[in-house]
């Protein structure tokens, strides 16, 4: 190509170009004047960097110029292909980053504020209200400079596309407009030319530098007069101190040869990105966010922050995100650029939440399906203002109820010895009196309104007329690290007998249960073996000196130590799970085995205090295996309709071995000398109302017949 738009450009010859052509191996290889023609073409294209379709191009082999947009001629097509804007290959593409990190300690370090918490657990996450990030009042907040280099990749595009593709497949039958919207998003992800061109990666090395575990420490030799200039000596990273390494006080001490990284231990604070630079495989760099505007946030590029790293408000619910370490640094607003990191451990850890074996305070159940998780059962009797207590396998032990202002215990005469935790639960209510029982029943009723168990229809239907069965479970909570404490790379810390960092001595609240998650079935718990206080998920207004609030888990505090644990006795819905939340580690969940729960519920019997009831005995036929063998008399009264089970009447709780058969009243009055009328007060009992397998002929004999 010789001309563009009819004019020839004067070729620009680089310095030393002729010398290169005269070198051995180059001389005589190129055709005559080829290099001059190429330089002329390059110069013309450089002068016309954005040709229009009407631009004309003349070539050396033909004097007639052709339009730039000609498609039938391969020569302009080759030029268009070679002059298209170059596209950056995605790999390797590096991002060099630098940030100023401002630590916010877990506990206040200012004089006069020792022991105060800077971070408050609200039951869901930790919140910071803008205090305790300076050593003394008025001093600027200290910060560390952290930096690194990461490899960017387009994996985020593929991950997001896969999620939307799964959403489209799983949402068949939904609104066509919604499906069309998802399809357009997928097209955008899959279109390499016009779609989303996104690269992303985590800031690798950020936490390692904060915890002092980075390995880029270099010794600095003591420099005197010599050949090595101090400017070229090995030196550690300078954390915005501006000072150069000095000769050590004691050259024989290896630790004096290095400047250790400032280790915060716990990751909690805020940071501001000061530099973002993208470097491609050819060494070309693009400054995304430069230090030129370090004190001018309005000159920085606009950032988009996720909700998880947006700072908190000094006033909850204000929506200002003004709890920032840089709020008073300059007269510029830094609140839109500060990113917050809530407290996290510098090492992997977990909250171990496990039920304890019945009869043990140390071992978990070997086979939970056997029901060894359950210590007993408690069924609130809202009709009679009492609680029915059952053993772990569903056998009725007795009832504690309110009788004219006094608490009365009625033993069921089972002869069984209940679990000590069930005994402790009853003794605690007895010591607190009638107000405690009333408050407990109200707390159970409030918790029921916020629970939606997996099997809402499971259990004896008539038993649910009294209240919801609750399992009594003993559990243990332990905050376990994966290994020993993370200590900074410093000689005196690495060789110490007990290099315990500060975060190992902090205590972390654990919130049991949730009144916002319908899948959580916790009603309340007792801490250790203190049964005089019941910590309810939904405490009532009148607590009777017995029911207490959980106080956002402040009652349960754990250290990061596998040797320390807290034990609790919980009352929970057997068909729902219990969540333990700390925010510093993933939420743990405890759930009972369905087989053990169903087996125990199948044995439970319901008792209703009825009377006085007026009526006379009437004959009833007793069946044995389908064969009529005898007739007896039964007491008539209106009975609830049940699918399975046997109704009977007992005069007292401990007289269940001699039940009186009952039958449904037909509403006809019979006043004859042969059928005298009686006024009865006692217990209406429904036996084996949920387990059809137990309805045998022997059982019918014991219960006085199948009516």
What report would you give on this structure?
This protein is an alpha+beta fold. It has twelve helices and 31 strands. The strands form seven sheets. Strands 11, 12, 13, 14, 15, 16, 19, 20, 21 and 23 form a ten-stranded mixed sheet that branches. The longest helix has 16 residues, at 155-170. Mean pLDDT is 79; it is low at 216-242 and 689-707.
Number of helices: 12
Percentage beta strand: 25-35%
Terminal Cα separation, in Å?
109 Å
Q: Count of DSSP E strands?
A: 31
Mean pLDDT over the residues: 79
Summarize the biggest pleated sheet.
10 strands, mixed
Helical content, roughly? 10-25%
| Silhouette | elongated
Helical/strand content category: alpha+beta
Low-confidence stretches: 216-242, 689-707
| Cα-atom radius of gyration | 40 Å
What attributes does this structure have?
6-stranded mixed sheet; 12 helices; disordered C terminus; 31 strands; 17% helix; single chain; alpha+beta; 27% strand
Topology of helices and strands:
Layout: E1 3-4, H1 17-21, H2 34-47, E2 56-59, E3 62-67, H3 74-82, E4 93-103, E5 119-121, E6 126-128, E7 144-152, H4 155-170, H5 176-190, H6 206-210, E8 267-279, E9 285-289, E10 339-344, E11 349-355, E12 374-381, E13 386-390, E14 396-403, E15 406-411, H7 420-432, H8 434-448, H9 463-466, E16 470-481, H10 491-494, E17 508-509, E18 511-512, E19 522-527, E20 534-536, E21 547-549, E22 557-558, E23 566-572, E24 578-581, E25 588-590, H11 594-603, E26 606-615, E27 618-624, E28 627-637, E29 646-650, E30 660-664, E31 678-687, H12 697-703
Parallel strand pairs: 20-21, 28-30
Antiparallel strand pairs: 1-2, 2-3, 4-7, 4-8, 5-6, 8-9, 8-10, 11-16, 12-13, 12-16, 13-14, 14-15, 16-23, 17-22, 18-24, 19-20, 19-23, 24-25, 26-31, 27-28, 29-30, 29-31
